Amino acid sequence: MKVLLVLITSTILTVAGGQAQTKQHYHVLPVDEQQVVRLEMNAPSVSCRINSTYNMRAVSIYGYPENQDFNPIVFNKVSNNEHLVKLKFEDPTENFTSSISSRVFKQLNDGSDKPWHVYLSRGIPFDLDLHYGMGNSSVDLSGLSVENFKISTGSADVKVGYFDNVSNRIPMDTFYAKVDMGVLELDQINLSRAREVVADVGFGRLMVHFSEQIAEKSNIKASVGAGSMIVLLDDPDIPLIVYINNSPLCRIKMLKQFEEIEPNVYVNQSYDENAKNLISFDIDVAMGNVIFRMNE
After folding, report:
1. Is the pTM higher than 0.85?
2. Most CB contacts within 10 A, which of 20, 58, 187, 254?
3. Beta bridge pairs of residue 197
């Protein structure tokens, strides 16, 4: 069965200047609602916001491209029983000079910088691989069925979470986050139901928030270079154990409720190695900061 790609366009008037600007709609339909859609997205220079939807279209995209012939769907194919979709939010006809001037202009005129919106169906399983370069973006995974999640940020500031307080519909295998120089916030990361969370922090900042709704074990493995990792906890009674591999150049700040049971191994008062909701941290730190604190 062939994959159908539907392109719908409409025209609206922008508020600024009263000039008409075309809003483009793009849709990818699923071949099989049970088949995992592997979505790779690259947003090097624009804001791209991802949300879940009850629409049965696998992927729906809305935006205001500068070039009306631009199509962010650069690949959409089923092969070897895999449905692979690749999105790239960068106009290949735009040269380097115009790209830089455009970005500067957009930074000075926030009203002209219209973000792209990507909606993912709650009724279809996904593998997500997201790459952000710069700008401010958000990813709301509420109610999705994500088997694996990967995000990397250059100098972008991105917030990922479950803003509707609806957890991942299936257990997630791996949640991978890489931060270069930007800021990445992972809100209510426990709602991902990830068996393993892997984080790689360069010079940027990673904030990891755990809400009270924790019912499954989770292992967090992190490597922190010269940046910082901040862990925010809502519930002091969640059982925790933290293994730290540090250096003389780093800074570690633990909660006062934590006890160091052996060198660089910390537990809280609720720690139980057999707890069904145990959270285990294994953190390597070079020159950066690692901070555990209660969420205010």
Report:
1. yes
2. 58
3. 175, 220
